[in-house]
UniProtKB/TrEMBL annotation:
Lineage: Bacteria, Bacillati, Actinomycetota, Actinomycetes, Pseudonocardiales
UniProt superkingdom: Bacteria
Cofactor(s) essential for the protein: thiamine diphosphate
Dehydrogenase E1 component domain boundaries: 21-311
Protein source organism: Pseudonocardia alaniniphila
Protein name: Thiamine pyrophosphate-dependent dehydrogenase E1 component subunit alpha
Annotated keywords: Oxidoreductase, Thiamine pyrophosphate
Amino acid sequence: MSTPAAPTEQLLADLHQVWRMRAFEEKVRDLRLAGDAVGSIHLGIGQEAIPVGAAELIGPDDAVFATYRGHCWAMACGAAPAALFGEVLGRATGTNGGRGGSAHLSAPAHRFFGENSIVGAGAPIAVGAALAGRFDGSGRVAITVFGDGAMNQGAVHEAMNFAAAMNLPVVFVCENNTWSELTPIDEMVRDAVLYRRAAAYGIPGERIDGNDPAVVRDRLGDAVELAREGGGPTLVEAMTARLVGHYIGDAEQYRRPGELDEARRREPVARLSGQLRAAGVDETVIEGAERDARAEIEQAAAEALAAPLADPATAKDHLYV
């Protein structure tokens, strides 16, 4: 099924949102390299079109679960950049009061129920949220996001099987950047077209262009609608590319010759900018999307840096009733 060309206004809006996420991730990288942020940090640079395309599909009672590469999904759910920076920087103003850091942040007030550092662990949790929605009358759809490597985790298999057997409203989104951390997925499995696994569970599956927000919005939208109407789960394999290392400091010696250059030609900023130029949009307007997004993100980072550090005395808060 082809996706109709997005109008210029939508392309510009998508470009602005992609730049907001790109600028956020680049600023997080800078803060980590400067020592302001600590710990292992995994960036979604290059993969922004998927959360941008999904953003308007997430209803007020829905629930989103991501991997440790989930900053952009928190933004897509509506979490404020300053609060997200605060969490990454261990500030009291963070979404979790500085307790979660980069890899465990959540923003439940914004329907983002968190990242998880255990590969694929968000899938069974999302299934639980979908099952709860059956009893609480919320009409909730759960969206769980994971990488291609997580498709080989037993917990993901169990989650898909249970969701299929119980006909639960879950959308499984595999952000396939082809790297499974540091190893090409096509060297780990016989069939690297991962959506085909959906047939084994008796559920729909589809591979889509994950670098185009309009395609994501259209195809993922069908999966969310199916779940909301009682049609059960779907597996969506969104093809994308990670333009940076698996973690900050990754030497990326595993990259294949020319792979990164090709990925940069297809990544969301290049894609959207090219579409806007083809539509006759002035270059100053296109550049303005980046300029405005970076200004917002710089201000948010400054606000977080000026906030007080989390108080160690509160470390046990929320642990006990």
